[in-house]
Amino acid sequence: MGSQLPGRFTIDPDGFARHHTGLGQMVMTPEDAQPPFRIILILCAMRTGSNLLCSMLRSIPGHAAFFEVFAGHGVEGLQHLPDCQAALEPRLGLHHDDKDALLAARAADPVGFFDALCAAARSVGHSSLSLKVLTDQLSAAHLDALLRRPHVSVLFLTRSRIARHISAVKGDILQNFLGVDTTGLQPTLSLAPFLQDAFDTDRILEGFHHQVRKSGVPRGLLSYEFDLDIAPHARFARLGAALRDIGVAADLSSAVTEDWIVKQDRAAHWTAKIANGFEIETALAGLGLADYARDEPLRDILPTSLPHAAQVMTPRNHLLLDEGGYNHAYSADPVISFTAIQYGRSFLAEWMIGPHPAFGTRRGVHFLKPTWTMEQPDLSALLAAIRQAEACNPGHVFVAMHVSDAEAARYRAHGVPSVPGNPNLFADESIVTCDADPHPDLPMSDAIYVARLEPWKRHELASKLTKPLFVYANPDSPVAEAQMQLLQQTCPTALFVNHQLGQGQYHYLKRPEMVRALASARVSLALSSVEGCMRASSEALFAGLPVVSIDSVGGRDIFYSPDTALIVDDTPEAVRDGVAEMLSRRLTRAEVRRATMARVKEERTRFLDAANRIVADHFGPLAPEIRMEPLLDFTVRYTPLSTMIEAIR
Asked: Which CATH number, 3.30.300, 3.20.20, 3.30.750, 2.60.120, labels domain 318-426+624-648?
C-alpha cells in the first residue's frame, strides 16, 4: 500500500493520488513534477479507418496506443503491450492472462478500469495513451467521467456515410473486418437500412460531440477520405497537425503504416462498390439526400486547442484598414464577419495581429470568401496569418468557404476548417430577371460572353460563332487594350457591346441595361479554364440563358444542370457546336431560371446548415442564426475593411 492521505486517497507507486467515491469521482493528480500524462480518446463509428489511425499512433515513441479497449470480446491492443498488461493485472487484483476476469473487472467499473489502464501505462514509462471508443461501447455517464480526467483530448474520426455503411455491409457478409480485399464483392444495397443506420449514427455522434463540447476538452476532427485515405507521408502530416491542434506533441519522423493494415476496397467511387450503385444514387438524389449520403458526420465542427496567446509587441497594422474588398459585418456581439481572401491574403487576419485583442473580450467567427480558386495557390502565408490572428485573439476562429472538395481538402490539410460556400450563392436573383426585353440598340445574337478582356478569359474560343456579343470591363490597361485589338482580328464578327452602345467610346452597363443585354442573346458562354466562381455565369442563368462552358476550376458550375449547361472541349469548333446543341433544346427562359433556382435553394440550405453548425458549436445555444437575406449581394458591394470593423467595434 502507498502512503495514506485524508479521506480515501492512496498514493500508488506510479505517483498518482487515487480517490474512489463512485462513478466519475475518481481523480488522478501527479504527486511530483513529472510531465502530464496525455490521454487521447478517439470517438468514432465502426468502419471509419480507426484501426489505421490507431496503428499510426503506435509509431509515436513513448505512446501506448490501444484499439477498442471497450470492445465486447476483449481489450484490443493490450496484447501488443505486454508490459502494460503485466502492470495492469495486479492493479485490478487479477491473475496473469485471465481474460474472463479482465472483462468482468471492466464490466463492473469501466471508468475504474480506464484509470487503472492509464496508471499501468504510465508506470512502465509511457508518457501518453490513446484508445478508440465506438458509438455503442460506453454510456453517456461513463464517457462524461472519462472526459473529466486530467489532460484528456478528443479526436473525432468520421467517414462518408454511404461509404462507411457499404464497408459495414461487406464486413457483415464476410464476417471479417480486417485484411480482406472486398473489391470484388458487390452486394445489393437497400436504401431504408442505410438511411436508418446513417440517422442513428448521426444521433450518437452528435451526442458525443455535445458531451465533448460541454466538457471543454481540446477536440479535433479527422476524416477518413481527406486525412487517412491518402499517401502515407501526407497521412502522417495530417495526423501530426491534428495532434498539435489538441495540444499533443508527437514525434512522427520515423512513423510507418503497419503491414497488417490494407485498403480493403479499391473501388474509386461508392457506386462501384455495390451492384445497384446507380439506382441508389438516383434514389438519394430524388430525396435530396445525395450530398448528405456522400458527406461525413460532424464535418463542420471546429477544432478547439488548448488556450494560448501570442506575444506580439508590434502595433496593429492600420494601413490594412484601407484595403477594399467584399466585407460584411454580420454581428457585433458575438462577432461574426464575412471577408474576402484576396491575392491569397486575409487582410482581416493580418490586421487582427497585434499586442491586444482586436475586439476586446468578445468571441468571434470570421468566414473567409475567396475571390479566386484556392485549389492551386500556395496557402502558407494565409495559414500563418490566420494562426497568428487566432493566437492574438483567443476565442476567435477563421472559417474558409470552399467551392469544391479539392479546396476543402487543401484547407483541411492546413488545419483550417471550411464550409461549402460558393460566392455565387450570395448573388441577388431578384435583380436579374428572365422576362426583360432585349436591348433596343443591340441585335439578337445566339451567344453572349460577359468577361474581362484578358487572355485567360479565352474569347477566341467564340471565333466560330456568328456575331457573338462581348460585354466587358473598361479595357484601360495595356493588356486589355492589346487583347481587344487581337480579338477584333480573330473574332471579326463579334459585337463589342460596351463600345457599340458608347458609339465608339467605352460605355459602362449598369444593372438594368446589363439585364437587357442578356435578354439580347439566347446562350451564355463561359470560356476560361481557371478563375474564381465567375458570377456572370450564374447571373446569365438567372436571366434564363443556358450556358456553354469548357471544363474549368473555380466553382462556376455550382448551379449547372445537365439540361441548362453543356461542358464542351476548349476549341472554337466545340464551342460553336455546343451553342447549336443548346439552341436545339428550345428551352424557355423561365425553364432555365426555374431549374437554376432549385439548385440555388439546395446550395444555400447546405451553406446555411454548415455555417450555423459552426456558429452554434463556437458560441453555444445563444448563437445568432446565420440567414441569407443580410448576405445577398455582399460579394459585389465594395466595403473597405475599416467600414466593416467600425460597424463591429
From this structure: 3.30.750
